[in-house]
Amino acid sequence: MMTAGRVLIIARTYRGLTQRDVADAYGVCERTYQRWEKDKTQLKFDTVVSIVEQICNLKLVQVLQLGAD
């Protein structure tokens, strides 16, 4: 099973973004975003989708396919 953190890592690295890039674009501190990627904080599904689609410019299904490869 793919976690929310893993989805964020796949989307971010596929786009060549740093954790700071994504945190700044989404309006959270870098430490908060790092906790999200490490699954230390439970995220709402909508938050994951927003980051994947708005910041990384990907569809969730694309990220899931990338993670399956």
Overview of the structural elements:
The structure is a single chain. The protein has 69 residues and is mainly α. Helices cover 68% and strands 0% of the residues. Helix 1 packs parallel to helix 4 and helix 2 crosses helix 3. The radius of gyration is 11 Å and the shape is globular.
List how many beta strands DSSP finds: 0
Q: How much is the average pLDDT?
A: 96
- The protein's oligomeric status is single chain
Which range does the strand content fall in?
under 5%
Q: Specify the biggest β-sheet.
A: none
What is the number of helical segments per DSSP (H or I, 4+ residues)? 5
Globally, the shape reads: globular
Find the structural class using helix and strand composition. mainly alpha
Radius of gyration (Å): 11 Å
Uncertain stretches: none
Helix content: 55-70%
Distance between the termini: 14 Å
Write the H/E string, N to C.
Answer: HHHHH
What is the element layout, followed by pairings?
Layout: H1 4-14, H2 19-26, H3 30-37, H4 45-55, H5 60-68
Could you write a compact summary of the structure shown?
The chain has five helices and no strands. It has 69 residues and is mostly helical.
